[in-house]
Amino acid sequence: MSKNFYITTPIYYVNDVPHIGHAYTTLACDVLARFKRLDGFNVKFLTGTDEHGQKVDKAAAAAGMSPQAFTDKVSQNFRELCSVMNFSNDDFIRTTEPRHYKAVENLWNELVKRDEIYLDKYAGWYAVRDEAFYGEDELQDVDGKKIAPSGAECEWVEEESYFFRLSKWQDRLLKYYDENPDCIMPSSRRNEVISFVKSGLRDLSVSRTTFNWGVPVPGADKHIMYVWLDALTNYITALGYPNMDGEMKDLWPTAIHMVGKDILRFHAVYWPAFLMAADLPPPARVFAHGWWTIEGQKMSKSLGNVIAPQYLVDTYGLDQTRYFMLREVPFGNDGDFSHAQMIARVNSELSNNLGNLLQRTLSFIQKNAGATVPHPAQLQANDQLLMTQIDMAIRTVRDHLDKQEFHKAIETIVGLSNSANSYIDSEAPWTLKKNNEIDRMNTVLFILCEAIRALGLLLLPFIPDSAHKMLDAIAVPENQRNFAAYGRAGECKPGTPLPPPAPIFPRFEEKAA
Ligand code: ME8
Predict the structure, then answer these.
(1) What is the model's pTM?
(2) Which of 12, 265, 307, when mutated, tests ligand 1's pocket best, judged by the most ligand atoms within 8 Å of its CB?
(3) Over the stretch 133-148, which tens digit does the pLDDT of each residue have?
(4) Could you say which DSSP state residue 352 is in?
(5) Atom 24 of ligand 1, residue of closest alpha carbon
(6) pLDDT grade, residue 509 (50/70/90)?
(7) Which member of 12, 28, 351, 484 has the lowest number of beta carbons within 10 Å of its beta carbon?
(8) Is the pLDDT at 1 greater than 70, yes or no?
(9) Considering only CA atoms, which residue is closest to atom 31 of ligand 1?
(10) Which residue CA neighbors atom 3 of ligand 1 most closely?
(11) How crowded is residue 390: how many other Cβ atoms within 10 Å of its Cβ?
(12) What is the mean pLDDT of the chain?
Protein backbone atom coordinates (compact mmCIF):
# COMPACT_ATOMS: atom_id res chain seq x y z
CA MET A 1 0.00 0.00 0.00
CA SER A 2 1.44 3.39 -0.91
CA LYS A 3 1.73 5.82 1.96
CA ASN A 4 -0.22 9.05 1.51
CA PHE A 5 -0.30 12.21 3.59
CA TYR A 6 -2.46 15.29 3.11
CA ILE A 7 -1.86 18.33 5.30
CA THR A 8 -3.61 21.70 5.11
CA THR A 9 -3.34 25.12 6.71
CA PRO A 10 -6.34 27.39 7.17
CA ILE A 11 -6.73 29.60 4.13
CA TYR A 12 -6.00 33.06 5.45
CA TYR A 13 -8.23 36.10 5.09
CA VAL A 14 -6.74 38.63 2.76
CA ASN A 15 -7.82 41.56 4.93
CA ASP A 16 -4.54 41.45 6.82
CA VAL A 17 -0.80 41.27 6.26
CA PRO A 18 0.79 37.97 7.26
CA HIS A 19 2.15 37.87 10.81
CA ILE A 20 3.81 35.29 13.02
CA GLY A 21 0.45 33.67 13.86
CA HIS A 22 -0.05 32.76 10.20
CA ALA A 23 3.59 31.75 9.83
CA TYR A 24 3.26 29.47 12.86
CA THR A 25 0.40 27.36 11.54
CA THR A 26 1.95 26.98 8.11
CA LEU A 27 5.35 26.19 9.62
CA ALA A 28 3.86 23.33 11.64
CA CYS A 29 2.38 21.92 8.42
CA ASP A 30 5.64 22.43 6.56
CA VAL A 31 7.58 20.40 9.12
CA LEU A 32 5.09 17.54 8.92
CA ALA A 33 5.08 17.63 5.12
CA ARG A 34 8.88 17.60 4.95
CA PHE A 35 9.15 14.80 7.53
CA LYS A 36 6.66 12.62 5.67
CA ARG A 37 8.37 13.21 2.31
CA LEU A 38 11.70 12.15 3.84
CA ASP A 39 9.89 9.12 5.22
CA GLY A 40 8.79 8.02 1.75
CA PHE A 41 5.19 9.28 1.76
CA ASN A 42 3.29 10.74 -1.17
CA VAL A 43 2.61 14.16 0.35
CA LYS A 44 0.33 17.02 -0.53
CA PHE A 45 0.71 20.19 1.51
CA LEU A 46 -1.85 22.89 0.83
CA THR A 47 -2.14 26.51 1.88
CA GLY A 48 -3.84 29.54 0.36
CA THR A 49 -6.14 32.50 0.85
CA ASP A 50 -9.79 32.97 1.78
CA GLU A 51 -10.94 35.82 -0.42
CA HIS A 52 -14.70 36.19 -0.16
CA GLY A 53 -17.07 37.45 2.52
CA GLN A 54 -18.06 40.66 4.19
CA LYS A 55 -14.78 41.18 6.03
CA VAL A 56 -12.70 41.14 2.84
CA ASP A 57 -15.38 43.17 1.03
CA LYS A 58 -15.12 45.86 3.71
CA ALA A 59 -11.32 45.79 3.71
CA ALA A 60 -11.32 46.27 -0.08
CA ALA A 61 -13.73 49.20 0.21
CA ALA A 62 -11.55 50.75 2.92
CA ALA A 63 -8.55 50.42 0.60
CA GLY A 64 -10.55 52.06 -2.19
CA MET A 65 -10.17 49.02 -4.42
CA SER A 66 -12.47 46.51 -6.08
CA PRO A 67 -12.58 43.25 -4.11
CA GLN A 68 -10.93 41.36 -6.96
CA ALA A 69 -8.05 43.82 -7.36
CA PHE A 70 -7.65 43.96 -3.58
CA THR A 71 -7.54 40.18 -3.17
CA ASP A 72 -5.10 39.83 -6.10
CA LYS A 73 -2.76 42.19 -4.29
CA VAL A 74 -3.05 40.93 -0.72
CA SER A 75 -3.08 37.24 -1.64
CA GLN A 76 0.39 37.81 -3.06
CA ASN A 77 1.65 38.72 0.44
CA PHE A 78 0.68 35.26 1.66
CA ARG A 79 2.36 33.64 -1.33
CA GLU A 80 5.51 35.60 -0.45
CA LEU A 81 5.27 34.42 3.15
CA CYS A 82 5.88 30.92 1.79
CA SER A 83 9.23 31.91 0.30
CA VAL A 84 10.20 34.09 3.28
CA MET A 85 9.70 31.12 5.61
CA ASN A 86 10.93 28.44 3.16
CA PHE A 87 7.60 26.59 3.13
CA SER A 88 7.38 23.60 0.82
CA ASN A 89 3.67 23.80 -0.03
CA ASP A 90 2.69 21.82 -3.12
CA ASP A 91 -0.25 24.05 -3.96
CA PHE A 92 -1.56 27.52 -3.11
CA ILE A 93 -5.30 27.86 -3.46
CA ARG A 94 -7.38 31.03 -3.80
CA THR A 95 -11.12 30.86 -3.33
CA THR A 96 -11.60 33.19 -6.31
CA GLU A 97 -10.22 30.56 -8.73
CA PRO A 98 -12.51 28.81 -11.25
CA ARG A 99 -11.53 25.35 -9.92
CA HIS A 100 -12.87 26.40 -6.55
CA TYR A 101 -16.16 27.80 -7.88
CA LYS A 102 -16.71 24.49 -9.61
CA ALA A 103 -16.13 22.50 -6.40
CA VAL A 104 -18.27 24.71 -4.16
CA GLU A 105 -21.16 24.81 -6.63
CA ASN A 106 -20.98 21.06 -6.85
CA LEU A 107 -21.03 20.60 -3.10
CA TRP A 108 -23.96 23.00 -2.81
CA ASN A 109 -25.94 21.14 -5.48
CA GLU A 110 -25.19 17.87 -3.75
CA LEU A 111 -26.55 19.23 -0.46
CA VAL A 112 -29.66 20.57 -2.19
CA LYS A 113 -30.21 17.25 -3.95
CA ARG A 114 -30.15 15.49 -0.58
CA ASP A 115 -32.56 18.00 0.97
CA GLU A 116 -29.93 19.26 3.40
CA ILE A 117 -30.56 22.91 2.48
CA TYR A 118 -33.83 24.90 2.68
CA LEU A 119 -34.90 28.53 2.25
CA ASP A 120 -36.01 30.56 5.30
CA LYS A 121 -35.25 33.86 6.97
CA TYR A 122 -32.33 34.63 9.31
CA ALA A 123 -32.84 37.06 12.13
CA GLY A 124 -29.95 37.10 14.55
CA TRP A 125 -26.43 38.19 15.41
CA TYR A 126 -23.43 38.17 13.10
CA ALA A 127 -19.79 39.06 13.77
CA VAL A 128 -18.09 40.25 10.60
CA ARG A 129 -14.64 39.86 12.17
CA ASP A 130 -15.26 36.15 12.78
CA GLU A 131 -17.62 35.76 9.81
CA ALA A 132 -19.78 33.85 12.29
CA PHE A 133 -23.39 33.68 13.45
CA TYR A 134 -23.92 33.68 17.20
CA GLY A 135 -26.90 32.82 19.41
CA GLU A 136 -28.10 35.47 21.87
CA ASP A 137 -27.03 33.18 24.75
CA GLU A 138 -23.41 33.24 23.57
CA LEU A 139 -23.06 37.03 23.68
CA GLN A 140 -22.14 39.53 26.36
CA ASP A 141 -23.49 43.07 26.66
CA VAL A 142 -20.55 45.49 26.84
CA ASP A 143 -21.22 49.26 26.68
CA GLY A 144 -24.46 48.64 24.82
CA LYS A 145 -22.70 46.41 22.28
CA LYS A 146 -23.11 42.69 21.72
CA ILE A 147 -19.75 40.98 22.03
CA ALA A 148 -18.98 37.41 20.89
CA PRO A 149 -16.78 35.08 22.98
CA SER A 150 -13.90 35.91 20.60
CA GLY A 151 -14.22 39.61 21.50
CA ALA A 152 -15.70 40.50 18.09
CA GLU A 153 -18.57 42.95 17.95
CA CYS A 154 -21.83 41.57 16.53
CA GLU A 155 -24.44 43.23 14.38
CA TRP A 156 -28.11 42.32 13.99
CA VAL A 157 -28.88 40.73 10.63
CA GLU A 158 -32.27 40.01 9.13
CA GLU A 159 -32.41 38.57 5.66
CA GLU A 160 -33.73 35.76 3.54
CA SER A 161 -31.28 32.92 3.79
CA TYR A 162 -30.68 29.31 2.89
CA PHE A 163 -30.15 27.07 5.89
CA PHE A 164 -28.17 23.88 6.26
CA ARG A 165 -29.86 21.23 8.44
CA LEU A 166 -27.04 21.14 10.98
CA SER A 167 -29.31 20.12 13.86
CA LYS A 168 -30.04 16.85 12.09
CA TRP A 169 -26.33 15.90 12.23
CA GLN A 170 -25.85 16.18 15.97
CA ASP A 171 -25.96 12.44 16.69
CA ARG A 172 -23.89 11.51 13.65
CA LEU A 173 -21.25 14.01 14.69
CA LEU A 174 -21.11 12.63 18.22
CA LYS A 175 -20.76 9.12 16.79
CA TYR A 176 -17.92 10.29 14.52
CA TYR A 177 -16.04 11.82 17.50
CA ASP A 178 -16.66 8.68 19.51
CA GLU A 179 -15.50 6.28 16.83
CA ASN A 180 -12.44 8.35 15.92
CA PRO A 181 -10.72 9.30 19.16
CA ASP A 182 -7.93 11.17 17.35
CA CYS A 183 -10.12 13.15 14.98
CA ILE A 184 -9.85 16.28 17.13
CA MET A 185 -6.61 17.02 18.95
CA PRO A 186 -5.45 17.90 21.53
CA SER A 187 -7.95 16.07 23.73
CA SER A 188 -8.94 19.19 25.69
CA ARG A 189 -10.17 20.68 22.40
CA ARG A 190 -11.99 17.49 21.53
CA ASN A 191 -13.86 17.68 24.83
CA GLU A 192 -14.81 21.29 24.12
CA VAL A 193 -16.25 20.34 20.75
CA ILE A 194 -18.18 17.39 22.15
CA SER A 195 -19.80 19.49 24.85
CA PHE A 196 -20.68 22.18 22.30
CA VAL A 197 -22.37 19.62 20.06
CA LYS A 198 -24.10 17.94 23.00
CA SER A 199 -25.54 21.28 24.08
CA GLY A 200 -27.61 21.25 20.86
CA LEU A 201 -27.04 22.46 17.31
CA ARG A 202 -29.16 24.99 15.44
CA ASP A 203 -29.54 24.90 11.67
CA LEU A 204 -26.90 27.08 10.06
CA SER A 205 -27.49 30.01 7.75
CA VAL A 206 -25.42 29.31 4.63
CA SER A 207 -26.19 32.23 2.34
CA ARG A 208 -26.22 36.03 2.47
CA THR A 209 -28.09 38.58 0.38
CA THR A 210 -26.96 41.98 1.70
CA PHE A 211 -23.66 42.08 -0.22
CA ASN A 212 -22.39 40.19 -3.24
CA TRP A 213 -18.72 39.34 -2.77
CA GLY A 214 -18.95 35.56 -2.82
CA VAL A 215 -19.85 32.50 -4.85
CA PRO A 216 -23.41 32.92 -6.16
CA VAL A 217 -25.85 30.24 -5.01
CA PRO A 218 -26.66 28.15 -8.11
CA GLY A 219 -30.08 29.16 -9.41
CA ALA A 220 -30.60 31.90 -6.82
CA ASP A 221 -28.24 34.67 -7.82
CA LYS A 222 -29.28 37.23 -5.25
CA HIS A 223 -27.80 34.87 -2.65
CA ILE A 224 -24.10 34.32 -2.21
CA MET A 225 -22.78 31.38 -0.22
CA TYR A 226 -21.77 31.81 3.40
CA VAL A 227 -18.03 32.39 3.34
CA TRP A 228 -17.26 29.44 5.63
CA LEU A 229 -19.07 26.91 3.43
CA ASP A 230 -17.14 28.39 0.52
CA ALA A 231 -13.79 28.47 2.37
CA LEU A 232 -13.88 25.01 3.95
CA THR A 233 -14.50 23.44 0.55
CA ASN A 234 -11.01 24.55 -0.54
CA TYR A 235 -9.63 21.42 1.10
CA ILE A 236 -11.37 19.19 -1.42
CA THR A 237 -11.16 21.61 -4.36
CA ALA A 238 -7.40 21.20 -4.23
CA LEU A 239 -7.78 17.42 -4.55
CA GLY A 240 -9.86 17.75 -7.70
CA TYR A 241 -13.36 17.39 -6.21
CA PRO A 242 -15.93 16.70 -7.71
CA ASN A 243 -13.68 14.17 -9.41
CA MET A 244 -13.62 11.39 -6.83
CA ASP A 245 -10.74 9.45 -8.37
CA GLY A 246 -7.07 10.35 -8.11
CA GLU A 247 -6.19 12.58 -5.18
CA MET A 248 -9.67 12.50 -3.64
CA LYS A 249 -9.38 8.74 -3.42
CA ASP A 250 -5.78 8.52 -2.23
CA LEU A 251 -5.22 11.63 -0.17
CA TRP A 252 -8.57 12.71 1.26
CA PRO A 253 -8.80 9.82 3.75
CA THR A 254 -5.52 10.99 5.30
CA ALA A 255 -6.40 14.69 5.62
CA ILE A 256 -5.09 16.59 8.63
CA HIS A 257 -6.35 20.15 9.01
CA MET A 258 -4.05 22.30 11.12
CA VAL A 259 -5.88 25.30 12.56
CA GLY A 260 -5.71 27.80 15.39
CA LYS A 261 -8.09 27.27 18.30
CA ASP A 262 -10.18 30.25 17.11
CA ILE A 263 -11.60 28.33 14.16
CA LEU A 264 -12.03 24.90 15.64
CA ARG A 265 -15.83 24.93 15.63
CA PHE A 266 -15.94 25.54 11.87
CA HIS A 267 -13.54 22.69 11.20
CA ALA A 268 -14.67 20.15 13.75
CA VAL A 269 -18.44 20.69 13.65
CA TYR A 270 -19.66 22.43 10.49
CA TRP A 271 -17.16 20.92 8.06
CA PRO A 272 -17.64 17.25 8.96
CA ALA A 273 -21.40 17.83 8.96
CA PHE A 274 -21.31 19.36 5.45
CA LEU A 275 -19.19 16.46 4.25
CA MET A 276 -21.31 13.73 5.80
CA ALA A 277 -24.43 15.40 4.45
CA ALA A 278 -22.91 15.22 0.96
CA ASP A 279 -21.98 11.58 1.59
CA LEU A 280 -18.26 12.34 1.79
CA PRO A 281 -16.00 11.13 4.61
CA PRO A 282 -14.99 13.68 7.26
CA PRO A 283 -11.28 14.56 7.68
CA ALA A 284 -8.97 12.22 9.56
CA ARG A 285 -7.92 14.91 12.02
CA VAL A 286 -8.33 18.53 13.00
CA PHE A 287 -5.51 19.79 15.22
CA ALA A 288 -6.16 23.11 16.95
CA HIS A 289 -3.02 24.80 18.23
CA GLY A 290 -2.73 27.65 20.72
CA TRP A 291 -2.38 31.38 20.45
CA TRP A 292 0.74 33.57 20.37
CA THR A 293 0.92 36.74 22.37
CA ILE A 294 3.79 39.21 22.08
CA GLU A 295 5.81 40.03 25.21
CA GLY A 296 2.68 39.13 27.23
CA GLN A 297 0.23 41.16 25.14
CA LYS A 298 -2.38 40.26 22.57
CA MET A 299 -1.06 40.94 19.07
CA SER A 300 -3.01 43.79 17.52
CA LYS A 301 -2.65 46.57 15.01
CA SER A 302 -3.81 49.14 17.54
CA LEU A 303 -1.07 48.11 20.00
CA GLY A 304 1.42 48.25 17.12
CA ASN A 305 3.02 44.99 18.24
CA VAL A 306 2.25 42.81 15.22
CA ILE A 307 5.39 40.93 14.23
CA ALA A 308 6.04 40.31 10.55
CA PRO A 309 7.85 37.02 9.83
CA GLN A 310 10.25 38.91 7.54
CA TYR A 311 11.39 40.99 10.52
CA LEU A 312 12.23 37.87 12.56
CA VAL A 313 14.04 36.28 9.64
CA ASP A 314 16.07 39.45 9.05
CA THR A 315 16.89 39.84 12.74
CA TYR A 316 17.54 36.27 13.87
CA GLY A 317 17.84 34.21 10.70
CA LEU A 318 15.38 31.95 8.90
CA ASP A 319 16.19 28.65 10.59
CA GLN A 320 16.56 30.31 13.97
CA THR A 321 13.00 31.65 13.59
CA ARG A 322 11.64 28.29 12.44
CA TYR A 323 13.40 26.52 15.30
CA PHE A 324 12.24 28.88 18.00
CA MET A 325 8.56 28.84 17.05
CA LEU A 326 8.17 25.09 17.30
CA ARG A 327 10.66 24.60 20.13
CA GLU A 328 9.51 27.19 22.57
CA VAL A 329 5.90 26.23 23.29
CA PRO A 330 4.31 22.79 23.74
CA PHE A 331 2.25 22.55 20.56
CA GLY A 332 -1.40 23.04 21.42
CA ASN A 333 -0.72 25.48 24.27
CA ASP A 334 -0.75 29.25 24.06
CA GLY A 335 2.68 30.83 23.87
CA ASP A 336 4.36 34.13 24.36
CA PHE A 337 6.91 35.57 21.99
CA SER A 338 9.74 37.38 23.68
CA HIS A 339 12.96 38.57 22.08
CA ALA A 340 14.92 37.58 25.19
CA GLN A 341 13.63 33.99 24.98
CA MET A 342 14.34 33.85 21.28
CA ILE A 343 17.96 34.85 21.83
CA ALA A 344 18.35 32.49 24.80
CA ARG A 345 17.04 29.47 22.86
CA VAL A 346 19.02 30.12 19.73
CA ASN A 347 22.24 30.66 21.65
CA SER A 348 21.89 27.77 24.07
CA GLU A 349 20.57 25.07 21.77
CA LEU A 350 21.66 25.93 18.26
CA SER A 351 24.96 27.71 18.89
CA ASN A 352 26.22 26.17 22.12
CA ASN A 353 24.86 22.67 21.92
CA LEU A 354 24.73 21.76 18.22
CA GLY A 355 27.23 24.35 17.01
CA ASN A 356 29.83 23.22 19.53
CA LEU A 357 29.42 19.57 18.67
CA LEU A 358 29.98 20.34 15.00
CA GLN A 359 32.86 22.70 15.54
CA ARG A 360 34.71 20.45 17.96
CA THR A 361 34.32 17.31 15.86
CA LEU A 362 34.89 18.76 12.43
CA SER A 363 37.85 21.01 13.30
CA PHE A 364 39.50 18.11 15.06
CA ILE A 365 39.05 15.83 12.05
CA GLN A 366 40.35 18.55 9.80
CA LYS A 367 43.51 19.08 11.86
CA ASN A 368 44.21 15.64 13.24
CA ALA A 369 42.53 12.97 11.16
CA GLY A 370 43.44 13.81 7.58
CA ALA A 371 40.25 15.77 6.79
CA THR A 372 38.37 12.62 5.78
CA VAL A 373 35.72 10.44 7.42
CA PRO A 374 37.83 8.33 9.83
CA HIS A 375 38.02 4.51 9.69
CA PRO A 376 36.41 2.95 12.76
CA ALA A 377 37.95 -0.03 14.57
CA GLN A 378 36.13 -2.33 17.04
CA LEU A 379 33.26 -0.52 18.82
CA GLN A 380 33.23 -0.29 22.61
CA ALA A 381 30.28 -0.13 25.01
CA ASN A 382 30.08 3.67 24.99
CA ASP A 383 30.08 3.74 21.22
CA GLN A 384 27.31 1.16 21.10
CA LEU A 385 25.31 3.20 23.60
CA LEU A 386 25.39 6.33 21.45
CA MET A 387 24.66 4.31 18.31
CA THR A 388 21.61 2.79 20.01
CA GLN A 389 20.38 6.25 20.97
CA ILE A 390 20.85 7.35 17.35
CA ASP A 391 18.86 4.36 16.10
CA MET A 392 16.03 5.02 18.56
CA ALA A 393 15.82 8.75 17.94
CA ILE A 394 14.10 8.52 14.57
CA ARG A 395 11.36 6.30 15.95
CA THR A 396 10.76 8.64 18.86
CA VAL A 397 10.70 11.71 16.61
CA ARG A 398 8.32 9.96 14.19
CA ASP A 399 5.95 9.01 17.02
CA HIS A 400 5.93 12.55 18.37
CA LEU A 401 5.29 14.10 14.98
CA ASP A 402 2.45 11.67 14.29
CA LYS A 403 0.82 13.28 17.33
CA GLN A 404 1.90 16.81 16.31
CA GLU A 405 4.19 17.03 19.37
CA PHE A 406 6.79 19.23 17.71
CA HIS A 407 8.36 20.39 20.96
CA LYS A 408 8.92 16.78 22.09
CA ALA A 409 10.36 15.84 18.71
CA ILE A 410 12.86 18.70 19.03
CA GLU A 411 13.60 17.75 22.64
CA THR A 412 14.53 14.28 21.42
CA ILE A 413 16.91 15.76 18.85
CA VAL A 414 18.47 18.13 21.40
CA GLY A 415 18.80 15.14 23.75
CA LEU A 416 20.79 13.29 21.11
CA SER A 417 23.04 16.29 20.60
CA ASN A 418 23.60 16.48 24.38
CA SER A 419 24.59 12.84 24.44
CA ALA A 420 27.01 13.35 21.56
CA ASN A 421 28.57 16.28 23.41
CA SER A 422 28.94 14.17 26.57
CA TYR A 423 30.45 11.40 24.45
CA ILE A 424 33.11 13.67 22.98
CA ASP A 425 33.93 14.90 26.50
CA SER A 426 34.19 11.41 27.98
CA GLU A 427 36.03 9.81 25.05
CA ALA A 428 38.30 12.88 24.67
CA PRO A 429 39.77 12.34 21.19
CA TRP A 430 42.41 14.99 21.96
CA THR A 431 43.77 12.78 24.76
CA LEU A 432 43.67 9.73 22.50
CA LYS A 433 45.68 11.68 19.97
CA LYS A 434 48.19 12.73 22.60
CA ASN A 435 48.56 9.12 23.76
CA ASN A 436 48.92 7.95 20.20
CA GLU A 437 45.79 5.74 20.42
CA ILE A 438 44.96 6.50 16.80
CA ASP A 439 42.60 3.57 16.09
CA ARG A 440 40.51 4.47 19.10
CA MET A 441 40.56 8.17 18.18
CA ASN A 442 39.34 7.36 14.67
CA THR A 443 36.56 5.17 16.03
CA VAL A 444 35.34 7.96 18.30
CA LEU A 445 35.44 10.46 15.45
CA PHE A 446 33.57 8.09 13.16
CA ILE A 447 30.81 7.66 15.76
CA LEU A 448 30.62 11.45 16.07
CA CYS A 449 30.23 11.77 12.29
CA GLU A 450 27.37 9.29 12.53
CA ALA A 451 25.78 11.37 15.31
CA ILE A 452 26.09 14.52 13.21
CA ARG A 453 24.58 12.72 10.22
CA ALA A 454 21.61 11.54 12.32
CA LEU A 455 21.11 15.03 13.74
CA GLY A 456 21.33 16.57 10.27
CA LEU A 457 18.73 14.18 8.88
CA LEU A 458 16.37 14.64 11.81
CA LEU A 459 16.66 18.41 11.59
CA LEU A 460 15.95 18.57 7.84
CA PRO A 461 12.18 19.13 8.33
CA PHE A 462 12.69 21.83 10.97
CA ILE A 463 15.68 23.85 9.75
CA PRO A 464 16.24 22.65 6.19
CA ASP A 465 19.02 25.03 5.12
CA SER A 466 21.16 24.52 8.22
CA ALA A 467 20.54 20.79 8.27
CA HIS A 468 21.74 20.55 4.67
CA LYS A 469 24.87 22.45 5.68
CA MET A 470 25.42 19.92 8.48
CA LEU A 471 25.13 17.10 5.97
CA ASP A 472 27.43 18.95 3.54
CA ALA A 473 30.00 19.16 6.33
CA ILE A 474 30.21 15.37 6.54
CA ALA A 475 29.80 14.89 2.79
CA VAL A 476 26.46 13.04 2.82
CA PRO A 477 25.43 12.54 -0.83
CA GLU A 478 22.16 14.20 -1.96
CA ASN A 479 20.46 10.86 -2.60
CA GLN A 480 21.16 9.75 0.97
CA ARG A 481 19.36 12.68 2.56
CA ASN A 482 16.21 10.82 3.48
CA PHE A 483 15.07 8.50 6.24
CA ALA A 484 15.64 5.33 4.24
CA ALA A 485 19.34 6.19 4.62
CA TYR A 486 19.08 6.81 8.37
CA GLY A 487 21.14 4.37 10.46
CA ARG A 488 23.29 1.63 8.95
CA ALA A 489 21.82 1.95 5.43
CA GLY A 490 23.50 5.30 4.75
CA GLU A 491 26.52 5.08 7.08
CA CYS A 492 29.32 7.61 6.48
CA LYS A 493 31.99 6.20 4.12
CA PRO A 494 35.43 6.16 5.74
CA GLY A 495 38.00 7.94 3.60
CA THR A 496 35.50 10.44 2.13
CA PRO A 497 37.16 13.87 2.01
CA LEU A 498 35.51 16.48 4.25
CA PRO A 499 35.42 20.21 3.50
CA PRO A 500 36.99 22.70 5.92
CA PRO A 501 34.35 23.39 8.61
CA ALA A 502 32.42 26.67 8.45
CA PRO A 503 30.25 27.84 11.36
CA ILE A 504 26.56 26.97 10.79
CA PHE A 505 24.94 28.29 13.95
CA PRO A 506 26.39 31.72 14.84
CA ARG A 507 25.77 33.10 18.30
CA PHE A 508 23.32 35.96 18.42
CA GLU A 509 25.04 38.94 20.00
CA GLU A 510 22.66 41.72 20.95
CA LYS A 511 23.86 44.97 19.46
CA ALA A 512 24.36 47.77 21.95
CA ALA A 513 21.57 50.35 21.64
O1 ME8 B 1 -9.86 32.32 10.17
N2 ME8 B 1 -1.45 32.83 17.24
O3 ME8 B 1 -8.46 33.19 8.55
P4 ME8 B 1 -7.48 34.11 9.41
C5 ME8 B 1 -1.48 31.67 16.58
N6 ME8 B 1 -10.12 32.51 6.67
N7 ME8 B 1 -2.07 31.49 15.38
C8 ME8 B 1 -2.65 32.57 14.83
C9 ME8 B 1 -2.65 33.83 15.46
C10 ME8 B 1 -2.01 33.94 16.72
N11 ME8 B 1 -1.93 35.07 17.40
N12 ME8 B 1 -3.32 34.69 14.65
C13 ME8 B 1 -3.71 33.99 13.55
C14 ME8 B 1 -9.55 32.50 9.01
N15 ME8 B 1 -3.30 32.70 13.65
C16 ME8 B 1 -10.33 31.83 7.90
C17 ME8 B 1 -9.92 30.39 7.81
S18 ME8 B 1 -10.10 27.94 6.73
C19 ME8 B 1 -11.16 27.14 5.73
C20 ME8 B 1 -10.67 29.59 6.78
C21 ME8 B 1 -3.49 31.64 12.63
O22 ME8 B 1 -6.69 34.88 8.42
C23 ME8 B 1 -4.28 30.47 13.19
O24 ME8 B 1 -4.04 29.34 12.40
O25 ME8 B 1 -8.23 34.85 10.44
C26 ME8 B 1 -5.71 30.91 12.97
O27 ME8 B 1 -6.63 29.84 13.01
C28 ME8 B 1 -5.60 31.51 11.59
O29 ME8 B 1 -4.32 32.17 11.58
C30 ME8 B 1 -6.73 32.50 11.30
O31 ME8 B 1 -6.48 33.07 10.07
Answers:
(1) 0.97
(2) 12
(3) 999 989 999 999 999 9
(4) I
(5) 260
(6) confident
(7) 484
(8) no
(9) 12
(10) 12
(11) 22
(12) 96
